[in-house]
Prior knowledge:
- The protein has one helix at about 65-70; strands spanning about 1-5, 10-20, 25-30, 35-40, 60-65, 70.
- The chain is mainly beta.
- The protein has one domain (about 1-70).
- Strand 1 and strand 2 (about 10-20) form a beta hairpin.
- The protein starts with a strand and ends in an 11-residue tail after the last strand.
Amino acid sequence: MRAYIRLWGNDYLLTQVDWHGNGELSSVAFRDENNKFYVILNMHSVLTSDAETNRYSDYPIHADLEEVVFWTEKKPTVSSEQD
Length: 83
């Protein structure tokens, strides 16, 4: 399985996913198309999601991870050798 986050009109492959002990998503991390590293915290500590509007913030940004994170099956690689 692969996890992605949908923000700023793009889908980004997650490089890290953290959970709380109760199974709720805690935070995720990824790099954008400019190779900038982001950590997005779940919005349980704030009232509203601010990730869409605070992309260039120097402070932690939050999103409803249940809404913006999605999972896909990893596509099998095709071998160049034939048996």
